[in-house]
């Protein structure tokens, strides 16, 4: 059974038409003129317990609007959303939904700014009516996986960005929610802290079977955490499915870069490989991009090694970022 159901959801905002200047501002107060902005257009999807799903799109695509509707902050103009069988925007059912949700926003905090982190966690324990036994079990686990010991007694205002993000993640999980919404959880973090966050999220998902919805512009986070991705554009879903399938659909691409001791004639290399590979030169390196359905890695490597003396070479898959960019450019999946 799905833990999140989104069916035919549409959200339209009314934006007042404002004339310029101070007079125009006062006229707006008494005017009934407005324009309609369709933020989300007829989207439908369902998420199962324990799934980690990447919910991605350009700025203004409708990601945050969808998340706010799933949290009950906004009410859909049309359609229906259920969280574990309850409507999050229904006043009578909202309390049931909030107990099942955890939310982390990259640029906002739910912690008390002047209190030590440990005090914030104790306050959240009381707010969510967590038993002493459950609190101790989760506190011990979260302190370990998120490495909170070194700053657990510091006021939140003294924490670095990386420390605060880990603290916010702990705060959102202290009541063991069934669903966790992560909005840019690794934004601004250095490589080491980011890796700790990613590993902690994986461990939390495995231990508690927490359903996780991840919105981010960092495609590496999506690749590291998610098997499924939902791509949103201008309020509509362009793609919903496994990451592996989307890579296959757009061609199983490979990128080979090499540095040669010999002078490389690009035209000659293009003639040898034909139209199967796109070839460019950047900072002395020769870059080849090709589809495995057209030519194999072995064939390309053999050609390169037969023609040139190689100093350095590397092989990479086509990144999810480049695939998503292609989807936005063509508007097709």
UniProtKB/TrEMBL annotation:
<dbReference type="InterPro" id="IPR017871">
    <property type="entry name" value="ABC_transporter-like_CS"/>
</dbReference>
<keyword id="KW-0547">Nucleotide-binding</keyword>
<dbReference type="GO" id="GO:0005524">
    <property type="term" value="F:ATP binding"/>
</dbReference>
<dbReference type="InterPro" id="IPR027417">
    <property type="entry name" value="P-loop_NTPase"/>
</dbReference>
<dbReference type="InterPro" id="IPR050763">
    <property type="entry name" value="ABC_transporter_ATP-binding"/>
</dbReference>
<dbReference type="InterPro" id="IPR003593">
    <property type="entry name" value="AAA+_ATPase"/>
</dbReference>
<protein>
    <submittedName>
        <fullName>ABC-2 family transporter, ATP-binding protein</fullName>
    </submittedName>
</protein>
<dbReference type="Pfam" id="PF00005">
    <property type="entry name" value="ABC_tran"/>
</dbReference>
<keyword id="KW-0813">Transport</keyword>
<feature type="domain" description="ABC transporter">
    <location>
        <begin position="17"/>
        <end position="259"/>
    </location>
</feature>
<dbReference type="GO" id="GO:0016887">
    <property type="term" value="F:ATP hydrolysis activity"/>
</dbReference>
<dbReference type="InterPro" id="IPR003439">
    <property type="entry name" value="ABC_transporter-like_ATP-bd"/>
</dbReference>
<keyword id="KW-0067">ATP-binding</keyword>
